[in-house]
Amino acid sequence: MVRQHVNPLSSFHQLPRTLPAPPDLFAAAARPLHLDIGSARGRFLLALARTDPQRNHLGVEIRRPLVEAAEADRQAEALPNLRFLFCNATINLQEWLVALPSGLLDLVTIQFPDPWFKLKHRKRQVLQPPLLAAITTALAPGRQLFLQSDVLGAIEPMVALVEASGCFERPEADTRPWRADNPLGMPTERESYVLSQGLPVYRVLYERNGAPPPPRSVLEDSGEAADNPGVDPAGADAAGDGAHHR
Ligand SMILES: C[S@@+](CC[C@H](N)C(=O)[O-])C[C@H]1O[C@@H](n2cnc3c(N)ncnc32)[C@H](O)[C@@H]1O
Questions:
Q1: What CATH number does domain 88-239 carry, 3.30.70, 2.40.50, 3.40.50, 1.10.1660?
Q2: Per-residue pLDDT tens over the stretch 89-104
């Protein structure tokens, strides 16, 4: 049985892990790379790799049994433009993104990340300032970052962080505050479930502009401000049980 959630702050999930070189991952390693953070069981990327063969797709996921099951499916289909890797995105991706050949990263997706609402758990949220800084550095101007969630309390801090960076713009034609549809044309598993329930999905597509990545302190200050604005931290912590809720 696969655990529903893991604690990304546990010591096991702080271990360094090495990103294999792109030629060890993909048959045509020079193709533009799509990185999906929190790929879960992988069915979204398995489907997308079939319909978008011009890009390589890399799914990273902290629950190892899901990575193994997704990789088994990929191997059974012999998809040459898809890989799933086990890692803790908040710890391992910074080095992995630096290790990528310059200009390779084309698209980053963070879709329906686990929502952690308690202030004391905010460090478990996947998009932390150092990870956004690494994504910002690795994405060339014009390349894209796509975020979506069914939980406003999960996507709003991500949006605040991305916009504080000053490094991303939204396409003019996109509806505000949320984009109406998924630009990839392929729903994730969580997205399909949420839509089947008739519930809203909040989406934002960003394009990297030409601004240099900001000092880390700018992103960290933004993260502090975005967490439960207007709520007294001591009061918020005392009020709940530490679990995350939708
Ligand atoms: C709610 S699921 C959504 C899965 C998929 N993106 C979808 O939309 O159907 C969030 C996924 O992110 C993974 N995850 C959470 N924190 C992570 C981290 N630090 N590194 C890698 N994956 C993480 C979880 O294990 C989970 O599989």
A1: 3.40.50
A2: 999 999 999 999 999 9
